[in-house]
Amino acid sequence: MRGGLNPILAVDSYKASHKWQYPPGTEYVSSYVEARADNSGLDLPGTLVFGLQPLLRTLAAHPVGEADIVRAARLFAAHGVPFHEEGWRHILSRHGGRLPVEIRAVAEGTLVPFSNVVAQVVNTDPQAFWLTSYLETMLQRALWYPSTVATVSWAVKRILREFWLLTSDDAEGSLDFKLHDFGARGASSGESAALGGLAHLVNFKGTDTVEALLAAEEHYAEPMAGYSIPAAEHSTITSWGRQGEVDAYANMLEQFGGPGRLVAVVSDSYDVFHAVENLWGRELRAQVLDMGGTLVIRPDSGDPVDVVSQVLRLAAAAFGSTRNSKGFRILNPAVRVIQGDGVNPKSIRAILARMVEDGFAIDNIAFGMGGALLQKVDRDTFSWAMKASAVRVAGQWRDVYKEPVTDGGKGSKRGRLALVRDPAEGLRTVRLEDCPAGEDLLRPVFRDGTLLVEDSLAQVRHRAYFGR
């Protein structure tokens, strides 16, 4: 299939047999998606919904074709599971290969409390009642991963804002560059790097994940979603040899320094404390101050709380500091620190708490987060699930639900659903028949193969900001 996606095969194998498992006379199946619970340990109020639009754009642009059906028939026959070829040929002949479903979803960038519907799917052709649940594999993947990354990133921004309010006089916009995405190399695939990196860019504007920039341009009309600066890695520094360490640092300043410019230099290849105190702080001090830009020192090993504390203290001794109106120290603007090793939401809080104890403002530091941002999440982080909640059989709608005695947390919702804004309770899920006209926050985004809503990244960022 063009675009690299055949929706017939983007599925769990057992879905292929489900058409024959519904009650006779089934006409419509309505299912919903939710993040059931916070298992992250971050004590979050909800999940920041993001990432459905790229899948829907792909489905709208590339209807199912004859070749897709032929390939699926051949594969499933060899695989040992039944294949409803007649149903897919009906979709091809009756709908031109466009999927006869309606998807309603909350606007991307919305913070939705856990255990609330974020999307709802129902077939629009009664002959395709089996299609709703068939799409679960694709839809769950499209939502759980980018939404989880966006939520973790949002959680970090909330932590950063807490310490910004406590220690900083700087403009709040500076928070947009306090967490940098270092996760591309640790992602499970290029697609994961693109979608996860893009999810991070809902909250921040610093990234080294180039594929995320391409995804933002392609799927969210954002010509440049994030920014970076020249930076050294250990290979470029250690290629000068231990005796040439100071020359490697000097070269970085000569190549990339200048008025208004930032350059990041990893400084722990041998002894980060010696590098800060003696190489940066003495031998290259004049060059750092004279270049008119900012040297960003990057420690990359050791206990991050203790190492950052010592590096800030040594940098302050070497380059000086001032106190802001809140009484916290800010390094000479020629020098800043970025911590990219061992960074996760808990270590960020611990580092910032230690900085407060030491009297340093958040202005002095930025963070780079890799695996903990893009890779150390899974579907269970927020217990994502898609469940059928209503079916129409022989003209009558009836509730569908599960209620296992062994795990109350896996009970599912009943009926056709809506998401409403309650003045007292915030967002909450209600039955569709109990929702006043025009108040359902689940808006139609896809119907019969057509994309109905296309948000820009700017719109998503706006919602996420005001949902803090």
Features of this protein?
6-stranded parallel β-sheet, 7-stranded antiparallel β-sheet, alpha/beta, TIM Barrel, 2 domains, 468 residues, nicotinate phosphoribosyltransferase, 15 helices, elongated, transferase
Description:
Belongs to the NAPRTase family. Keywords: Glycosyltransferase, Pyridine nucleotide biosynthesis, Transferase. Residues 177-447 form the Nicotinate/nicotinamide phosphoribosyltransferase domain. InterPro entries: Aldolase_TIM (IPR013785), DUF5598 (IPR041529), N/Namide_PRibTrfase (IPR041525), Nicotinamide_PRibTrfase (IPR016471), Nicotinate_pribotase-like_C (IPR036068). With 468 residues, the chain is an alpha/beta fold. The protein has two domains: 2-147 and 377-466, nicotinate phosphoribosyltransferase, CATH 3.20.140.10; 156-374, TIM Barrel. Helix content is 37%, strand content 20%. It contains 15 helices and 19 strands. It has helices spanning 52-61, 66-79, 85-95, 131-134, 136-167, 190-200, 210-220, 234-238, 245-256, 272-283, 285-290, 304-319, 345-358, 371-374, 457-466; strands spanning 26-35, 46-48, 101-105, 111-113, 117-123, 179-181, 206-207, 262-266, 294-298, 321-323, 329-331, 335-339, 365-369, 384-393, 396-399, 417-422, 426-431, 443-447, 450-451. Strands 15-14-1-5-3-18-19 form a seven-stranded antiparallel beta sheet. It has a six-stranded parallel beta sheet with strand order 7-6-13-12-9-8. A hairpin with a 2-residue loop joins strand 14 and strand 15. The longest helix is centred in the first third of the chain and has 32 residues, at 136-167. The two termini are 40 Å apart. The relative contact order is 0.16.
